[in-house]
């Protein structure tokens, strides 16, 4: 929480001072109280009420004063609001190593499921595109609010070939360029892959180009060190390369993640959907504090009037 006029918070020092003054006044009142010889008789007749109740109105007044001072300071809360006209490209590796079943049911199926959940979670106004790649970027869908088009592209991915990570990033950057002189919207790339580049352009150089275009690349390295795929020559080890993916994220100004199961991958995509699809914005919440202070003030007045109404 922050405040537009924080200096007014200094007035909160008046609240404990008022409480101290009240306590001193109460002590003086007891010191100079008039002695009455029939005190025991009067006490037996009067109804017994806890002594703390007479302090309730003052406590409520003090709380109301504190809250109203905070309200005068114009408090603000940081909330997540949907990003208007944001665009994101889901760049998904569909090379042969994505057939590995160390992530159930397979790396590619887990990636597809997480990407589809991502499309479900991001706000409707966020445009989403898809790049599927192996030796080359085989599938390129420009950012659109039509989730069906993006889903169809994901469904058509099949695992085969090498890994042209750099070419895929460059294709995503090209797809994010505004058309017909339109204003450039906030953009990001989510790159999922399980290995180092085996073909095409240098992915770190592509990430640096993304940084110049102010497009962060969030990388997700998928798979375990025990991952294998079957080939005519037998089982081939296909461990992920999180270091290469982290280098791409760092070069672009994005963040890197490394996951080894489908549930964790879905959690990462959910987090990325929140980061990309929303932005932090300060909203003034003075009204809430003012209402709370007024309510406490009303309670203080009611409790005070009821107490004094009982006095003869």
Report on this model:
This protein is α/β, with parallel strands linked by helices. The chain folds into two domains: 2-78 and 283-309, no CATH class; 83-260, Rossmann fold (3-Layer(aba) Sandwich), CATH 3.40.50. 45% of the residues lie in helices and 21% in strands. Helix 7 links the parallel strand 6 and strand 7. Helix 4 (107-121) runs antiparallel to helix 5 (147-155). The radius of gyration is 32 Å and the shape is elongated. 35% of the residues are buried. The mean pLDDT is 83.
Features:
alpha/beta, single chain, 3-stranded antiparallel beta sheet, 2 domains, 312 residues
Give the structure's gist in a few sentences.
With 312 residues, the protein is an alpha/beta fold.
Number of helices: 10
| Radius of gyration computed on alpha carbons | 32 Å
Query: What share of the residues does DSSP label as strand, in percent?
Result: 15-25%
Quick one: how many beta strands? 11
Strand arrangement across the biggest beta sheet: 5-4-3-6-7-10
Secondary-structure element series: EHHHEEHEEHHEHEEEHEHEH
Helix coverage percent: 40-55%
């Amino acid at each position: 929480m922050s405040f537009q006029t924080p200096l007014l918070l200094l007035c909160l020092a008046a609240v404990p001072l008022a409480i101290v003054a009240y306590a001193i006044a109460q002590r003086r009142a007891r010191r100079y109280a008039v002695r009455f010889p029939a005190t025991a008789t009067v006490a037996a007749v009067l109804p017994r009420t806890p002594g703390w109740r007479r302090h309730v109105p003052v406590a409520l007044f003090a709380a109301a004063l504190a809250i109203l001072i905070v309200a005068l300071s114009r408090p603000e809360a940081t909330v997540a609001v949907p990003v208007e006209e944001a665009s994101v490209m889901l760049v998904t590796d569909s090379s042969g190593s994505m057939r590995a079943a160390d992530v159930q049911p397979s790396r590619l199926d887990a990636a597809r499921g997480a990407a589809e959940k991502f499309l479900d979670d991001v706000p409707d106004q966020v445009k989403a595109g898809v790049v599927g790649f192996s030796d080359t970027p085989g599938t390129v869908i420009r950012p659109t609010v039509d989730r069906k088009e993006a889903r169809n592209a994901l469904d058509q991915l099949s695992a085969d070939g090498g890994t042209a990570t750099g070419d895929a990033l460059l294709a995503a950057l090209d797809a994010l360029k505004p058309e017909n002189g339109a204003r450039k919207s906030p953009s990001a790339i989510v790159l999922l892959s399980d290995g180092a580049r085996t073909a095409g352009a240098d992915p770190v150089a592509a990430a640096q180009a993304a940084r110049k275009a102010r497009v962060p690349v969030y990388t997700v390295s998928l798979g375990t060190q025990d991952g294998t795929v079957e080939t005519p020559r037998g089982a081939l080890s296909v461990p992920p390369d999180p270091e290469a993916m982290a280098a791409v994220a760092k070069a672009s100004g994005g963040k890197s993640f490394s996951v080894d199961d489908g549930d964790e991958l879905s959690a990462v995509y959910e987090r990325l959907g929140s980061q990309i699809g929303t932005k932090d914005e300060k909203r003034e919440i003075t009204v809430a504090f003012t209402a709370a202070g007024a309510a406490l003030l009303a309670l203080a007045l009611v409790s005070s009037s009821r107490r004094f109404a009982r006095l003869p």
